[in-house]
Amino acid sequence: MPLLIKLRSNSKLVYVALRKVLHIDLDAFFCAVEELRRPYLKGKPFAVGRQLGERGVISSCSYAARSFGVHSAMPTKQALRICPQLIVVEPEHHAYETFSQKVITALKGFTPIIEKVSIDEAFLDLSDLSQDSFTIARQIQKRIWLEASLPCSIGVATNKLVAKSATDVGKLASKGNDYPRAFTVVPTGQEAAFLSGLPVRMLWGVGPKTAAALKQLGIHTIGELANYPQRELVQLLGKTGYDLASRALGIDDRPVIPERPIKSISQEITFEKDNREETYLQRTLYGLGERVAHRLRQEKLCCKTIRVKLRQSDFTTHFRQRTLSSPTDEESVILKVAEELFSQLWRPGVAVRLLGVGVGKLSSSVYQLNLWQTESIRERQLLSAIDELRERYGKSVVHRGLFIDNKHEGV
C-alpha cells in the first residue's frame, strides 16, 4: 500500500497516494527513429507504414504529416490522398526494439521499478528517490535525449492514472510541427482538480459505449463525473460505475509493476556538504532504515540481507552487508544491523559524502507467531500502529527514540 493522505475534493473525502510516478511516452517513436536512420526525412511529411493496396495502414506519422490531417491507423491510400507529398517508409521493427532498449537502459539508471507498457511507453516509480519529482523528470528527459537521441513527453503525479493523463494533456497542448517534448507535473493533492475539466473520454476505462452512456446522463467532463452520485453510476454501470467514480477523483492504487520481481530495496542520500558529525550521520542512517523497512511492509516483503553503503569525501565507496538467520521486515532489526555495519565502515572524523541503507534476498512476508512470542507480537502491533500513522499523516509524523530531540533532515 502506498502512503496516503486525506483530502477533500468536491465535498468528498479523498485518499491521495504519496508516490512519485512518472509516465513517459516517446514522441512519434517510429518516426523519430527513422529520422535518425534517414536524416533527409527530418522536417518532412512522412509516415511509417505499409503500402499493401487497400490494406496498407499508417503506423506512425511525423508531426509535419499530422498538420495535413494524417494520423496513425489511417489507411495508407487515404493518407496519400490528403497529403500527396507524403513519404511512406516501411517499418523496421528490429531498429525500433534496439532504440527502445536504449531508453530502458537509460531509465534503469534512475530506478529498477519500471513497467514497460509498450515499445514506446513506460511507467516509473520514483518514490524511493530523495529528489523532487520535477528535478528527476527533467533529468530523465535529458538523459534519454543524450543517450538515445529521442524526444519524449513526460507526465508526473502520485499515481499511474493521473501521470498518464498529464502526459496526454501536455502533448495535446503542443502546437507546431516539431516533437512536443511535453512536460507536465501534477502536484500532490491536485489530482482531482487537474482531471476535472478534461473530457470524460480521456478518463482511463471510458470507451465509446461508456462515453455515450455518460453523455445521456449529462456527463461531459471528468469533473461532472466526479460530482455525480456514485450510487446511480453503480446502478447504471455496475462495478464499472464504482471504478469510474474513484478514477474521476484521481484515485488509482495500481502499483508500477516491473518486468522482473523487485530484488532489492534501498535508500541513499548525498549530502549537500560532506558531514563528519556522528549524531547527524546516525540520525540519517536511521531515517533511511525506517523508509526501507516501511517500503518492505508496503510491498508485503521481508529481507534476509541488510547492507550499508558509505562514500567518503574523496569518492572512495565502502559496503558492508549481513545475512540474517531468518527474513524480517521489522525496523528494530534492520536499524540495529545497519548501525552495526555503519560502525564497521565509519571512523570518527571521516567526512561522509553519501550514505545508504539497502536490503536484499527478498521474499513474501509470512508470519507464524505462536502464543509465547510476546515480544514479536508487540513489535508487529507497534509497527502496524506506526504504519497507520505514517499513512495518515506522512512519514515524518513518528520516529523511534533517536529522533525525539532532533527532527531528521534530508531523508
Tell me what the CATH architecture of the largest domain is: 2-Layer Sandwich
Helix fraction, binned, reads 25-40%
Terminal-residue CA separation: 20 Å
Parts with pLDDT < 50 across at least 5 consecutive residues: 1-17, 368-375, 403-411
Structural class: alpha+beta
Order of helices and strands: EEEHEEHHEHEEHEHEHHHHHEHEEHEEH
How many strand segments? 15
Brief account:
The chain contains 14 helices and 15 strands. The protein has 411 residues and is an alpha+beta fold. 36% of the residues are buried.
Structural description of this entry:
- The chain is built from 14 helices and 15 strands.
- It is globular and about 75 Å long.
- The protein is an alpha+beta fold and 411 residues long.
- It has four domains: 4-28 and 94-192, 2-Layer Sandwich (Alpha-Beta Plaits); 34-92, MutS, DNA mismatch repair protein, domain I, CATH 3.40.1170.60; 196-248, 5' to 3' exonuclease, C-terminal subdomain (DNA polymerase, domain 1, Orthogonal Bundle); 264-403, Dna Ligase, domain 1 (2-Layer Sandwich).
- β12 and β13 (317-328) form a beta hairpin.
- A five-stranded mixed β-sheet has the order 7-8-3-9-10.
